[in-house]
């Protein structure tokens, strides 16, 4: 991904620096000060590309990697960076917009929307549950008992605190 | 005839055309309707499609399907026997100079003087464009490694295409019309070209019509696709509609027989089973249950499997 | 239109230069060689020769299949035809002027300045050039290289047919045709006087050129590329 982005930039600056229509500087600025969004597209995934984008952006909002007000790349920039069609990124953003996860401010761009705190908390609880469940599965496979696990959790909790 | 010429009907598209505050009011870059043109051994019939401004459309079909004829009609190199062509909302013949100033073109065979140098040709062509950008041309020439002092005929086909591309890209055209531009180009440059083209679309007024028989070229970046075969449009739609609703179902004869015939758009039988192209993949999935495998339809699936309109009727 | 002319000049510079030098050598030879050509014949011959240059610009474009280029640039077909006619006239006119100057001033030339720059030869040259361009350009614009061939072959055939008809029918057609034309011209000459006749001739040439342009524009607009 990093490699790809670098490549896009190099290519863009090669071709379009002299054309007033395309401003590579804004691309640079966005990358330096803008959101730190990571999206990986798989061609072999059974999920359509727009869903992959929705899922990953959603995941990053829930996990707190993307915080309220963080700018997202424009539909066209994202399409170009990911080398996918504009219509696909457009659809992904629409989906996110519908779910209230992002806001598009006319003329200014797209930003992560202010999230309902209860909703976020609930989502993140689900995330924790998932991780715990995974740890427990692992524990069972190793034959670690209930007492032992609770002890481990207690120790870790105290360590972190 | 039950209208295999599928129109863009998905609600998503309606949303997308005006969606997210993005240039919904612009007239389409290309609006072609009911085009007809006949030759002794070939006939273009009832060709219609629309490319909204700000998007890429693939014009996809096997060789001899009529892609070049459609492009020649759009460029007013030949006259249609029926139908109309509007570019940027203007009739392409009544406003010929105005619309052509906004078009960059690359043809199958570059219509360029082969016995003068690239520089000379460039000088002649650049006269015609108010927005000619000399430094951009030089930049592209350097990037494409064009030998500007040499005569066109000393160049390979791929190089000639690159030169035509450099000319087409250097006057800030709003619409690029590219006829098989990737034929004769190596995969690395093909990839770079697609990169460059998708970079152009950062400006939401720029549009691209791209004809090709190599479907993988466009698979990812095309927003719209028009499939042609034997002089007819077999399907014109946007890629989200295609990916969402179209699919290929593989299984044995009895299993695929459960697919609604109305949505069957092509069938291929081979020794180990049947492949069916369907326009309603979700219904097909439910109808066939677990006895089949279902994949989204690729451009190539549509090219290979889609039946012509007559075969369907 | 200026752009179309400029484009043709840029793309055909070498062809024009080479042709011009060959013409110059050829004409210089005829100007010096005592037996060849009266002033009128020299004028006529040079005008025919130089008129083929603009025609060859069109045929060359057709030969390298570059017509689709001109017709894809932001310019209408009518404008292309207009520009072609204008360029053709300019080139032919400059060619004739060059031929006259060459004939008059090349060392050892048999012509005096006054021999060539007289109403007769000048009119002859203008007539020759207009005739060739008006007849050939429509064919060339519509059919390219083939057009020139068709034209030349057609004139050949026409000549042969006329010749045979004259031979077969004896003097009847000969008298009717040749004498008719000659007589008509003579009567016109008499009726209009020398100045009036020249004026009429010039008007006829302009009309011919105009019709040729209209026909060319119409058929070039319909040409399929």
Write the layout of secondary structure elements.
The complex is a heterotrimer of chains A (161), B (313) and C (225).
Chain A: H1 2-16, H2 24-33, H3 49-62, E1 71-72, H4 75-82, H5 86-98, E2 102-105, E3 109-112, H6 117-142, H7 146-160
Antiparallel strand pairs in A: 1-3, 2-3
Chain B: H1 11-18, E1 30-38, E2 43-51, E3 56-60, H2 67-74, E4 82-87, E5 90-91, H3 96-100, E6 103-106, H4 118-126, H5 134-143, H6 157-169, E7 175-179, H7 187-200, E8 207-212, E9 224-229, E10 232-238, H8 239-245, E11 247-251, H9 253-256, E12 264-270, E13 273-278, H10 281-288, E14 293-296, H11 299-305, H12 309-312
Parallel strand pairs in B: 3-8, 3-9, 6-7, 7-8
Antiparallel strand pairs in B: 1-2, 1-4, 4-5, 9-10, 11-13, 11-14, 12-13
Helix pairs in contact in B: 5-6
Chain C: H1 2-11, H2 13-32, H3 39-63, H4 67-70, H5 77-105, H6 113-116, H7 119-143, H8 145-169, H9 171-221
Describe this structure in words.
The complex is a heterotrimer of chains A (161), B (313) and C (225). In chain A, 63% of the residues lie in helices and 6% in strands. With 161 residues, chain A is mostly helical. Chain A has a three-stranded antiparallel β-sheet. In chain A, strand 2 and strand 3 (109-112) form a beta hairpin. The radius of gyration of chain A is 20 Å and the shape is elongated. In chain A, 24% of the residues are buried. Mean pLDDT of chain A is 74; it is low at 1-35. With 313 residues, chain B is α/β, with parallel strands linked by helices. In chain B, the strands form three sheets. A six-stranded mixed β-sheet of chain B has the order 6-7-8-3-9-10, with helices on both faces. Chain B has a four-stranded antiparallel β-sheet with strand order 2-1-4-5, covered by helices on one side. In chain B, strand 4 and strand 5 form a beta hairpin. In chain B, helix 5 (134-143) packs antiparallel against helix 6. The model of chain B is unreliable at 1-23 and 309-313 (pLDDT under 50). Chain C is globular, with a radius of gyration of 19 Å. The model of chain C has no long low-confidence stretch (mean pLDDT 87). The interface between A and B is large, with 35 and 39 residues.
